[in-house]
Amino acid sequence: MRAIKIIVEKHNDDYVACPLGIKGVVVGEGDSYEQALADVKSAIRCHIEIFGQEVLEEQSPAREAFVAEAEVLI
To answer: How far is 24 from 26, CA to CA, in rounded Å?
Structure first.
């Protein structure tokens, strides 16, 4: 068992979850926070089964995750 940091975003219609510290693209989604988390955990297991343990970074590069908002001139 291994702890993996996961970012969960709430959108208008659903939730999207993305893990940190995994090579490749892994995403989960669901109608609730819990569903998105369960979906991404399943996707992580599948990703590891297909590509092997090499997709796991030894240690996640992120110690913590924050949400910030910034105005950008475009």
So the answer is: 6
